[in-house]
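ZP: hey, is the iron/sulfur cluster complex queued? I don't see it on the tracker
AM: it wasn't, my bad. submitting now with these inputs:
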Amino acid sequence: MPTSFIQPEFKVKIDYDKCHKCGRCVQQCGWGVYNFNERPIPDDSKCRACHRCVTYCPAHCISIEKNQLAYRDNDNWSPAARKAVWRQAETGGVLLTSMGNPLPYTRIFDHLVLDACQVTNPSIDPLREPMELRTFIGHKPDSVGVEPDGNGGFRLAEGEGMKNNLMLDTPILFSPMSYGSVSLNVHKSLAMAAQRLGTFMNTGEGGLHADLFPYQDNVIVQVASGRFGVSPDYLSRGAAIEIKIGQGAKPGIGGHLPGEKINKEVSSTRMIPQGTDAISPAPHHDIYSIEDLRQLIYALKEASGYKPVGVKIAAVHNVAAIASGIVRAGADYVYLDGFKGGTGAAPQVIRDHIGIPIEIAIAAVDQRLRDEGIRNWASVIAAGSIRSSADVAKAIALGADAVAIGSASLMALGCHLCQSCHTGSCSWGITTQKPELTRRIDPEWGAEQLTNLVHAWSHELQEILGALGVNAIESLRGSRERLRSIGLDEQMNKVLGVKPAGM
Amino acid sequence: MTTERPRYAEEASYKIHGGCGLMGICDESGKLMSGEDAILAMAVQHDRGNGLGGGFAGYGIYPEFPDHFAFHMMYHDIQAKEEVEALFDQYFLVDLAEPMPTRPVKGITDAPLLWRYFLNPYPSKLEESELSAEDYVVKAVMNINSSVDGAFVASSGKNMGVFKGVGYPEEIGHYFRLEEYEGNTWTGHNRFPTNTPGWWGGAHPFALLDWTIVHNGEISSYGINSRYLEQFGYKCTLGTDTEVAAYLFDLLLRRHKLPMELACKALASPLWDEIDRMPEAEQAVMRSLRSVYGPGMLNGPFAIVLGFNGGMVALNDRIKLRPLVAARKGSILMVASEESAIRAVIAEPDSVWMPKAGEPTIARVKGMDWPIHGDLHLDPSEISCAVTGTERSCDTVEVTA
Ligand code: SF4
Ligand code: SF4
């Protein structure tokens, strides 16, 4: 019997004429691809195409190629579908994977185009004119009550005005990724970058390590079903608190961080014993309905001196009604995670087949909140595969207040989207707790990479606003009139609230 | 004559682009000025329009009927007039109904039937309706504009009126014999629509009760402004930027009771940099205003003059992308798109300046409280209908001079 029907996905080719025989590839690979016997000998079956070796090879003599094995043509039974069957026949298990949904669903963002000014109204040059991206996340009243201040001016009347909002210098946050699923150095990089950028990182469900305390004003602390790391101190440190109900990559299911990843530091941050599996239940066992959520929101507000409390949900079919309920339950923001959002580990069947695209979720939620006259009551943060500043602009034009980036931020730290985070051996030192790998990221360098990325996107956003002839992000937010669709059907245009190009 | 009667629903199903010229003049002492000055100011700015729309609003022009609602009506045909008059008879005491005084002017053709009415709600009907007189009037305006084909209410406020149509403003002004009127405040407008044949009702000023707006510009944030207003029940069906500006003023001033200064600051917000440098209490107000009313902020190039009984406010966009000049001579404050217009009217102004971006220039007529109608409490969707109206083609109708 063969040990496996599954052939290697990639071929590692080394040009031995050029190879220095330095062994760096052996040392760099987190998956143990290489053996060294006078020269590096790769085992193709272990390669994840993460390109760590390729990047570090001083001779540029490594190439990773697709294993071009021919399969008898069958549109129905793709090679991937066949391999999945073989793997499950071999293991009897749920197929695990990571990062976001890779299947070729329609990428709606790529069917939307933005407007620009010509003649009847001028475009604005962001190099010469101010171009404002400042964004406030949180509840806003419907109106502002003022009273004369006695000096000919006005002041806010008692109890009036906007309170407890997060101020962002750019409408881009870092999405929740827990310490445990990513390394502490990744968390530090995100926290430092958030502070420099005037935005926020999010602890995810793994608690807040003491090393991040200096950055706590730029940290959103998450409360998830496992309640890892949650304490009064934790709640008091975060700038805002987020209740995690679901995640775009795995709506409706919980999480499982294997015991091997729970080292001493992770254990103390999560407040669980070392080496035990960290299991997040699928639901919060104290939230079985919307009124339970309301109680938790207010409990967290009380416990934290009325910090903003947001609720993160996966984008599912009924997302608009759910979001409305969340807003009415008192949440200061709703975090929508689309079905292409990343994950550190998820069953493949869930990641690839559950949930809806973020574009649709934004459009449906924004419209519903407007229809109900409660759009001001809470902000909408959108995530789940924001790949560029164009996606940011389109998400905001559809109605999001801000976006959060996870996969893109990890890519800034070297992630090559090899979809192997769940193995805990990330060669880039990102989704791993192995000390020899985690030290590959210097937080100072990481923060700079992240800062660069967000700065670049912010500049591009300013260029887009300028072309649109507006000089503040709030004039693009929800302005679907500035979007047109290409190649979407009428029904989809209706759902998105956009006209087709040409109209 | 069987022509299709226009269903006055909307001017265009798409957003209308255009440039324009405007003016506003107010004597804060309350002294009255002839409409001739307004005509002159607009004639100087002739080239800012293309002859497809001109208009004026005058305040304090009906001293003989100061407490009557003055309805300026446009009718496509006799049938529309009869239907509206039947409605008037049912709900109002009409003390005077007469054709608008006009004179034949070269260049003005295709005028609708133009009539004006001085009326007040039937006391018993008003009581029955449990509405304020203003609400009652707005409701009637809505009713006419939405349900009587071929009829449009050009204005409906007390002691004021809107005179507008298709033509250059100086032609429209002379056509309506504005030199025979005297008012404490006048605004004027010259339209340059880029895509419609022009419709009499579509010219500026745009009015609701005694609020009038003349507007030069393009509101690039129209998309979100209109969606924001929809939340409050307004329906932006006219497809013009002006409509959005009018409803936003209505929302902020009347419904949210913001003082004029702050309403202007919400609609043409200072930059965050400036806000960050303000004293703390002011900063708190501005932060809240900007965050709460961000979706209503008018972004893009514009200059607006809002007229009402008691004064006027001129406002530029937040980085001043459309021209607006102001001047003062004694108690007279004047604004216009071009300084030449001011100098044509005021020979030697005491001062002439360019109002700063987003800084409202406010004129208050002495002794008048404003805004005057603090407490309408109608369903906003009804109010929005009241100011929706529009065009197809208006046939040539004989104008009674
Ligand atoms: S890193 Fe490159 S040069 Fe060094 S041993 Fe590996 S393949 Fe050869
Ligand atoms: S984080 Fe590491 S393991 Fe996960 S996809 Fe990126 S490179 Fe691969």
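AM: back. The mean pLDDT of chain A is 95.
ZP: great, adding it to the tracker
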